[in-house]
Amino acid sequence: MKLHIHLLLRYFIWIGLIAIILSSCVPQKKMLYMQVKEDSDTLSSFVNERKIDYRLQPGDNLYIKVVTLDEKTNVLLNPLTSSGRGGGGNIGGNDASIYLQSYTINEAGYLDFPMTGEIFVRNMNVDEVRDVLTEKLGEYLKELVVIVKLVNFNITLLGEVKAPGQYKIYQSSINIFEALSLGRDLTDFANRNKIAIIRENKTGSSVVYVDVTKRDLLASEYYYLQPNDIIYAQPVKGKQFSFANFPYGIVFGFLSTTILLLNYFQNN
Question: 61-149 domain in CATH 3.30.1950.10?
Answer without folding.
Answer: yes
